[in-house]
């Protein structure tokens, strides 16, 4: 959008905006480093479309991923880019302040990675206290991530150890449905953990049909929670 298009949309009543936060991290040998950014951009756009009264801000692509030196967590793998939690919170804070200045009333934080959640909670709580006397609210969408996808896969008969917890079936299946070019289909081997290939789970068990359902559950949950919080966060 141009600045005039955005100005006119807000003036016409589009006062909800989604801030997608992704991450640039290792996802094993089979999935691109920017996985979270690709997925959250798509899901944020679909959420906004279904609501019909929301816009989407640019994806925040760099989030807490571990320490730089000595490297911890995903920073032990080449290509990961990290920010300290306090820096990430400051970026979120100024994203929200900027959007408030431009007339948005409901600012929804859509975090696609586990490392994003605590900072989003802290920023939302802090700004809502500060802005309590105004009509502006910040919503951390807790129902979106991680969602029911992993639980649902187990209900379909997939072993818990195959579903996994990082670069496993949840995100692999989602990309099989959305854009398989972000995957290396000949590298979808069983994970050997943080000390091995970085994968926890068995991405080779993923299917596009699994991915379609997982995405739908996350999107539906976010659409519902935005509506609920728009009401419950105000007197």
Description:
- With 235 residues, the protein is of the alpha/beta class.
- It has a domain at 3-148 and 219-232: Creatininase (Rossmann fold, 3-Layer(aba) Sandwich), CATH 3.40.50.
- 44% of the residues lie in helices and 8% in strands.
- It contains 8 helices and 4 strands; from the N terminus they run H-E-H-E-H-E-H-E-H-H-H-H.
- It has helices at residues 3-11, 35-51, 85-101, 117-130, 149-155, 160-163, 169-178, 208-232, and strands spanning 16-21, 54-56, 106-111, 137-140.
- Strands 2-1-3-4 form a 4-stranded parallel beta sheet, sandwiched between helices.
- The radius of gyration is 18 Å and the shape is globular.
- The mean pLDDT is 97.
Uncertain parts: none
Strand order of the largest sheet: 2-1-3-4
Terminal-residue CA separation: 33 Å
The portion of residues assigned to helices is: 40-55%
Number of alpha- plus pi-helical segments:
8
Please state the structural category: alpha/beta
Report the radius of gyration as a whole number of Å.
18 Å
Tell me what portion of residues adopts beta-strand conformation: 5-15%
Helix and strand sequence: HEHEHEHEHHHH
Number of strands: 4
The CATH architecture of the domain at 3-148 and 219-232 can be named as: 3-Layer(aba) Sandwich
Largest sheet: 4 strands, parallel
Provide the CATH topology of the domain at 3-148 and 219-232. Answer: Rossmann fold
Mean pLDDT: 97
CATH class membership of the domain at 3-148 and 219-232:
Alpha Beta
- CATH homologous superfamily designation of the domain at 3-148 and 219-232: Creatininase
Shape: globular
